[in-house]
Amino acid sequence: MGMLTWENGQYLLDGQPYRIISGAIHYFRVVPEYWEDRLLKLKACGFNTVETYIAWNVHEPQEGEFNFSGMADVASFIELAGKLGLHVIVRPSPFICAEWEFGGLPGWLLGYGEIRLRCSDPLYLSKVDPYYDELIPQLVPLLSSHGGPILAVQVENEYGSYGNDHAYLEYLREGLVRRGVDVLLFTSDGPTDEMLLGGTLDDVHATVNFGSRVEESFRKYREYRTEEPLMVMEFWNGWFDHWMEDHHVRDAADVAEVLDEMLEKGASMNMYMFHGGTNFGFYSGANHIHAYEPTTTSYDYDAPLTEWGDKTEKYEAVRRVLSKHGFAPGCAFPESVTKAAYGKVALSEMAGLFTEPNLQHLSEPIKSVCIQPMEKYGQSYGFIMYSTFIQGPRHGQQLHIQEVRDRAQVFLDGRPLGVVERWNSKPLNITVPADGARLDILVENMGRINYGPLIRDPKGITEGVRIDNQFLYDWTIRTLPLEPEKLSSLSYTPVTQEGQALQEEPPMPERDDAGLPGFYRGCFEVEEIGDTFLRFDGWTKGVAWINGFNLGRYWKAGPQKALYIPGPLLRKGENELVLFELHGRPECCVAELSDQPDLGQTAAVDEAVLNFVQDGEDK
């Protein structure tokens, strides 16, 4: 499809002047059945290129075990883009940020306690190399030098926002070249002295990322690169959401105005995001600027194309600007996907987490003198439970969970004692009877930090548990990644009208199901398949599965009020919905499948947010 080069401040495609008009779509945030729909909608808006990150943790979820199928089939996504007449920009750096769990790094790296991330640490590089040995050979046949659609490949991602190890950048660059990547290589960083100094290589094309302040940003870039083409590798046209805050929006007219200014200056650009998609499963990341802030399951990003693939006012505003600058729609806009309301689903069966034999089916117990984070047990995602027996009597003391990552529910003799959260870590009052008590602590990994100096983010309890100043030892630990094959082994019992599960055998002595974690299952019939939205009104916090597929986290803390369910995850006939509710059943044990999304209360993205990277804080 042509070789991309540059000279005299201009891109050339097979020797002819060319401008890149790209939009970001992440294959790992969209079900494969909808890849073509989203790509055609990109083309219909006037874009000629699609950009995607490549997420290491998606492709090597366990060390040495690689996955390039289904939603992880990146080669098929790139091939499809080429067949549809789109060029492709690929960003396969080991670290991608992207508000993705651990910035795309696999959690198992943290099992090596001494490892140093994103630098020339030999241990770290020894983990990158086998991954690249699997990944890069799949990309080489798709390079434009081989007749494929890939025009350019990124070396690392916003590295100047993290470090200045140029030997590390050079190692990655050489690794790409050695494995056969012979198209244009580039870096991308915020337009500040610090970031351009730390994140670039003299002989590698440099691009910049920003959301506004076009003149100022390009002026700073030109202080470092006087001859290279102007390329905004990330033009932030919206923003992402954290739990416990409003849904971010950015005015369409503002986006169009900045885009117009950018194009008037002759720049090429990649719109981040054109279509955000969804953080399915446990893959939503987190930020930590002043406090830990976990990202929602939705990655709608207030992009021109919604999370569910519908066009917006912003889409039309962008299309008009692109047409003004000579980038006409390349095809007709595909018909919108049908939305379906399947009504209320009675979650009529329940499997208590603490109820025999569910915990035994979900996890094998591990004995340990000390508390350890989940990565030490080969676990990357989900939950982990720490249990011990406390001798009594103890009166009016305080239970401290030292360095919880990220949210702990504490139970004493099977009853909720309280919640300890990373962003609001306070001790719990505890009294233990003379004959002692069992302590269970269920900890949720709500997403590893994906940007900045705190990305080293092991999960579980990283220091220890103590009563006043006395540390507790002798623990039984259960890893709970909640993989589909494990969930299929749960023993469900019917839920009574009052919501309590009927037990063939009585529950553990002095244990009450009220407020305890449990799995709630219900079935519903589908005649005509369409996209739908799972509303979780009345439920508190947990994780949802549809037909064994992990949809992601829900939480009444908002702003997200419903989880998007793409139609291809459904099947004609009977479908199964499971909620792992962390705080006990609601009054009415039902969920609703609606044809209307709900992203909650909105708040405008302000100028400061759009320039976090430039201010050295956050993307």
From TrEMBL:
UniProt keyword list: Glycoprotein, Glycosidase, Hydrolase, Signal
Highest taxon of the lineage: Bacteria
Organism: Paenibacillus lautus (Bacillus lautus)
Pfam families: BetaGal_ABD_1 (PF21317), BetaGal_gal-bd (PF21467), Glyco_hydro_35 (PF01301)
Active site as annotated: 158 (proton donor), 234 (nucleophile)
Residue span(s) of domain Beta-galactosidase 1-like first all-beta: 374-480
Residues annotated as domain Beta-galactosidase galactose-binding: 517-575
UniProt-listed PROSITE patterns: GLYCOSYL_HYDROL_F35 (PS01182)
Lineage: Bacteria, Bacillati, Bacillota, Bacilli, Bacillales
Residues covered by the Glycoside hydrolase 35 catalytic domain: 11-323
Enzyme class at the top of the EC tree: hydrolase
Protein's name in the database: Beta-galactosidase
GO BP term, pick one: carbohydrate metabolic process
GO MF annotation terms: beta-galactosidase activity
EC number: 3.2.1.23
Catalysed reactions listed for this entry: Hydrolysis of terminal non-reducing beta-D-galactose residues in beta-D-galactosides
SUPFAM superfamilies xref list: (Trans)glycosidases, Galactose-binding domain-like
Protein family (similarity comment): Belongs to the glycosyl hydrolase 35 family.
